[in-house]
Amino acid sequence: MPAVGSSLPRKDAWDKVNGKAKYIDDYSFAGMLHCATVRSPVAYGRLKGIDTTAAAAMPGVCRIVTAGDIPGVNVNPLVLDDQPFLATGFVRFHGEPVALVAADTYEHACAAAAAVKLDIEPLKPVLSIRESLDPASPRLYKEDNIFSRYVIRHGDLEAGFARSAHVFEREYETPYQEHAYLETQGMIAVPGIEGSMTVYGSMQCPFYVHDAVSAILGCQKNKVRIVQTTTGGGFGGKEDFPSILAGHAALLASLLERPVKLVYKREEDIIASSKRHPGLMKMKVGTDADGKIIAADIQYYVDGGAAATLSPIVLWRGTVHALGPYVCENVLIRSFAMATNKVPCGAYRGFGSPQVIFAGESLIDEIADTLKIDPVEIRRRNGLKIGTKTVTGQLIDQSCGLTETIDKAVAKSDWTRKWQHPSARSGQVRRGIGISTVYYGVGLGAGGKHLDRAGASMLIMKDGTVQCAIGNTEMGQGARTILAQIAADALGVTFDKVFVVETDTAFVPDSGPTVASRTTFMSGNALSAAAKELKPRLIEAAAGLLGAKPEEVDLVEGVAFVKTARETKRVAYADIVKEFYLRRLQPSAFGWYIAPDSTFDKETGQGNAYFTYSYATNVAEVEVDMQTGEVRVLRIVAAHDMGRAINPQQVEGQIEGGTLQGVGYATMEEIRHDAQGRMLNNAFATYILPTTEDAPEIEPIIVEHGYSEGPYGAKGFGEVPLMGIAPAVANAVFNATGRRIRIMPIKPEKLIDC
Ligand code: MTE
Ligand code: MOS
Fold first, then answer.
1. pLDDT in tens, 426-456
2. Does 206 sit in the ligand 1 pocket, CB within 6 Å?
3. Where are the alpha helices (DSSP H) in 563-669?
4. What are phi and psi of 567, to 5 degrees?
5. Distance, CA 346 to ligand 2 centroid (Å)?
6. Where are the alpha helices (DSSP H) in 493-630?
7. pLDDT at position 225, please?
């Protein structure tokens, strides 16, 4: 059986379940020191002085550093390059790092960090999108507090609205979402010979960390090596932020010439690391009498926090996805990332799209209700199909399974029997059913196309095992397993022979970040390219043994054979490898893959924004207690078109995990601040997440509309399972109660009249 398409066991499962896997906090190096961070106690203020005298005299303290001690540049290199490693002049959010302490133990480091005295003159902070937009508020970034903005326009908006039979105007708001990965952020920096620095740690994007460490140390790139250790979840939260920790640990390690460990406790991880951006969506949509969308005017605002970090890229994805998977001729989409005095927001599964999807999918449900059209039917009527164009004018010319995901989710959920108008629901506990559809541009798209490439190397060892090095990372999503499946089939060997090692910048060139669900597609294609070079060499050895010409021989699943006599003239992999080594054939190969082209016109937002799209339909069933306002999500049917399911069981695992994160986003998760902008609930006791008790029955459905450029047709979909859950739940809550919740999360107090 081919490896691709089989639910083969995960390569990393055994070590993870029996506790052998080594996470960063499990590592220790001789002479290692421990680091603690001194943080701003206020949201905004002038940093007038840092007094380290008392702290420096405390037990075990080796060194305390501030921004002035940085030998390189005090900026994390990313997009707009405006986030300092350590604050200078001003502090701009509660929890911002100001100084670092290295000590012999973690406890000593923490005690000394608490004794560092900060002289801060507090200033009035800007705490929301609306405040940031207000011209009377302080200017945090340039003259308008806007980090970044985009526009998409085509058609004739005025004429579109004039032609519309109905025009709907609504506002929606979405909250922060914390990644809540099981393993907190952590790094160990280890100085080496000849001025080198190796940093080990938990991360998604070793090449971003590489850039950051060479920036803060001001050293040559060849001196820096980044090694990813087993990473206990990322979900976007370990995209840009690990660069800050790595920079901090490397700074101390380089000044002290000793290894330095920096691992966050949960409370500081929540206070200081990135989150999903709060969103504000102002939607105006015009339709004809049948609910066909004719015009859309959308404004999308995100709360970027105190530094731009990834906001420009997150915002770009949200902009392209702002209308959802629908056709519309007359469009104006404007989007803005706003500066505030809160923690910088960044990537979180869906990357700026769950906010707009909540708005768009809630609105289309409102339209259906007003026009008395079935919520499924209105989506079918407007949905993207082969031959239609997206809001950026991109022709969908292949691999579009949207309609099939709708059909299958509707059938499996028994929609037709279960859907009733809210007015027909009664009783204290009411059930409801709701739907959402989404599309998702795979990879970085035109917004980050210069980074959209990947390398991979492959080495056939003397015993025939194949070692693969990739430039993307495993963070729990199963990359090392599915990439081994792709590599095995591409090379013609069996899955048990192929191993993907953890990512190390010394072995692979910069392959871009491990985000945007791009790993399967990008690293899969890079491995296929390497296999394309290696396989002919294996065949050359096999042909020698078979006394045939190489072109007469093929190699499939570890058996080489003469194509015309597959059963009789064959040779086993072990013998081929022996012959391969006797012939001194080159046992390694390197593959390089560049993503198909994408375009985006800055003035009009027109172009082929992404090279391909994945699609999904979610149907949620909920139960609402009308007396307490409590919502229970009972069941979610999730149909996904990811091109090809390389490992169906892992696809189902991704759907289950992402769906539960979506349930949390919909019904319980939010970050609260006090009036001064201090975060109030930076602990798992107060930041409420769904547990297994809250998990609905999740029914995954795989739909495969292969993409011609994908490895075995695969597109990429790791983020999609979360993206459409919140509106499906909100629409189900409406269907149960007749109440439309436009400000997430859907908490009991919003459903009952207190
Ligand atoms: N699944 C697990 N178990 N852990 C994770 O951290 N991250 C998600 C998703 N699924 C994540 C996960 C996010 S945000 C992305 S971008 C993709 O996986 C990245 O992996 P892929 O490129 O292999 O799809
Ligand atoms: Mo995922 S948010 O693109 O790391």
1. 999 999 999 999 999 999 999 999 999 999 9
2. no
3. 573-582, 648-667
4. -80, -30
5. 9
6. 519-546, 573-582
7. 98
